[in-house]
Design brief:
Structural class: alpha/beta
CATH architecture of the largest domain: 3-Layer(aba) Sandwich
Strand content: 15-25%
Mean pLDDT: 93
Number of strands: 15
Oligomer: single chain
Distance between the termini: 15 Å
Number of helices: 11
Order of helices and strands: EHEHEHHEEEEHHEEEHEEEHEHEHH
Helix content: 40-55%
Shape: globular
């Protein structure tokens, strides 16, 4: 069986988005009478990753394969428990070595486990396609197609121009990382740049030569069809600090706090992010990753994001700027909860109009389906 291998940046969103794109590629191939491909995913985050993927992709559990060794290799250059600057230094120093480790691994026979738990072996020569999302290393084993929220080289170049009082990362390290990111982007046969994305608020931005515009690359959220909810706020748990005061205000106003991970937010009620569509949900709080931004946007709701921490990934600095400039949400700077609720509701008509503009422009709001069609059109049958 031929395989797709995914290559992504740190965090949970990227492995979900690349898997969604891989499944969309298979759907396009099936529609055209072509063989579906196995999907090989680096197993970076242990049982937590497997649990999340089973919740999202249970219907495809026998055709998605987790590669623990590739996950271990990839994790070496990920931003996780260290600071962003420390992770950047590791990436700059170890990019070539880690890329070679991945290529060597993927060029042999190696053990994997299906998402359904069955052990298997894959022959590297059977990898036919790589799907990337802001990759940190080069696999070098198959043609690469990407889908992204913004090119890392653009983010790094823009960071150089920002004061270190806003983004603290060492500028010499940033400059050393720019050619690495440029090489990774140039290696992609085609990269879909989702709209809106990190620099959609910059009208003079020049696209890469291999870049095409696409809709948001996230599975379109469903309208809420669950049990009736008491009025509340939804918090996407990704390690957001500094919202404790808001939780107390929500309680004082009689609002329930819902979250996707009550274990990390004691006292919250577990709920699917789909419930953001419910009229009962007054606000959605999340770090400004594009999965969360698009999830709110496609449901016609504004997102509330925390202020940028100068030591965090610079992408988030520019994402926050984009959220405010395009009217997709609000940066939380200590505003009282009633004020936030009023401001968020005022943004909804503009967000809904943006969704309609995207639908008119692309014919769909499903960026995975759109990009998958372009990829399958481009690949030999």
């Amino acid at each position: 069986m031929p395989y797709i291998v995914t290559n992504f940046a740190y965090g949970f969103g990227p492995f979900l988005r690349t898997t969604e794109l891989a499944l969309a590629v298979n759907a396009q191939r099936k529609e055209r009478g072509q063989e579906e491909l196995g999907i090989l995913v680096p197993w970076v985050y242990g049982e937590k990753q497997k649990k999340i993927m089973l919740e999202e992709f249970a219907d495809h559990a026998d055709s998605i394969f987790l590669d623990e060794m590739l996950g271990t290799i990839l994790k070496q250059v990920f931003y996780a428990d260290s600071t962003y600057e420390a992770a950047l230094a590791v990436w700059v120093a170890d990019y070539e070595r880690v890329s070679m480790e991945a290529k060597t691994h993927l060029s042999t026979s190696f053990a994997v486990e299906s998402l359904s738990g069955k052990p298997s072996t894959i022959e590297g020569k059977d990898i036919a396609l790589e799907l990337a999302r802001a990759p940190r290393i080069s696999y070098g084993v198959a043609p690469v197609y990407g889908a992204t929220f913004g090119n890392i080289s653009d983010i790094l170049k823009a960071t150089v121009e920002v004061s270190t009082s806003f983004i603290s990362a060492d500028r010499e390290l940033i400059k050393q990382a720019i050619p690495i990111s440029e090489a990774l982007e140039a290696s992609q046969t085609m990269v879909g740049a989702a709209e809106p994305g990190t620099f959609s608020y910059v009208p003079e931005r020049i696209p890469l030569l291999n870049e095409v515009a696409i809709p948001p690359t996230i599975r379109a959220p469903h309208g809420y069809e669950g049990d009736s909810l008491t009025p509340g706020i939804f918090v996407t748990i990704t390690g957001i600090p500094g919202l404790e005061r808001l939780y107390k205000e929500a309680e004082a106003l009689g609002l329930t706090v819902y979250s996707n991970d009550p274990e990390r937010m004691p006292g919250s009620v577990k709920a699917s992010p789909d419930c953001i569509a419910s009229d009962a949900i007054e606000l959605h709080f999340a770090r400004s990753g594009w999965g969360s931004i698009w999830g709110s946007m496609l449901l016609g709701k504004a997102i509330i994001v925390p202020e940028f921490d100068p030591a965090d990934d610079p992408e988030i600095f520019f994402n926050n700027e984009c959220v405010e400039r395009l009217g997709l949400g609000i940066v939380y700077r200590g505003q009282p909860l009633p004020e936030l609720i009023k401001a968020a509701k005022a943004l909804q008509p503009g967000i809904q109009a943006r969704n309609q503009e995207l639908r008119t422009r692309f014919g769909t709001l499903d960026g995975n389906e759109y990009m998958a069609r372009l990829i399958v059109d481009h690949l030999p049958s």
